[in-house]
């Protein structure tokens, strides 16, 4: 596990310990999305570059030593990450650049880069013994959380605006998620999800609220 030095609010500059705050800055509220800052000196002393380079894990967990997950903690089994890069010569020429590489995260298990954040959130929920994870979403984040959660038998609850595409809602149901349709906007669904997570003790994956989503 990468040793976490502090969680810092980019708005007010206040710092918190990882055990002190779970989501956003208590002072700045919803605009205070906390940044995870690592103790890089400590990490340098415990990281073995050769061991990292030579391991065979073909997923994002290849870099577990650099992520906020304990070394012996279980992680979701789906192969998230290690998606291919493509050298796009015509794009490079069109943009007048020497070289442009594209990362194809469409090859992640549920077809989007959102699998990365969802895998991280589910792994942290597993580590803490939390059985239910929830989010508000109209698309890929909901599908990612539902798919990754299904792979470990976790209870997933999705708050979805009723205007969301039926195909997306069907995808969530196929993965076994509990889908709660909200007859209002995404913002209302987001706030309702956050409120219920606090009230029921669920782990919240909401983007911009959970500081660990970007760590995936």
What's the quick description here?
This protein is α/β, with parallel strands linked by helices.
Give descriptors for this structure:
216 residues, alpha/beta, Rossmann fold, 2 domains, four-stranded parallel sheet, three-stranded antiparallel sheet, 7 helices
Helices, strands, pairings?
Elements: E1 4-8, E2 15-16, E3 35-38, H1 40-46, H2 49-54, E4 85-87, H3 89-95, E5 101-103, H4 114-128, E6 132-136, H5 140-151, E7 155-161, H6 166-174, E8 178-182, H7 186-200, E9 203-204
Helix pairs in contact: 4-5, 5-6
Task: Please tell me about this protein's structure.
This protein has seven helices and nine strands. Helices cover 33% and strands 17% of the residues. The strands form three sheets. It has a four-stranded parallel β-sheet, with helices on both faces. The chain has a three-stranded antiparallel β-sheet with strand order 2-1-3, with no helix packed on it. A two-stranded antiparallel ribbon has the order 4-5. A hairpin with a 6-residue loop joins strand 1 (4-8) and strand 2 (15-16). It is α/β, with parallel strands linked by helices and 216 residues long. The chain has helices at residues 40-46, 49-54, 89-95, 114-128, 140-151, 166-174, 186-200; strands at 4-8, 15-16, 35-38, 85-87, 101-103, 132-136, 155-161, 178-182, 203-204. It has two domains: 4-66; 114-215, Rossmann fold, CATH 3.40.50.1100. Helix 4 packs across helix 5 (140-151).
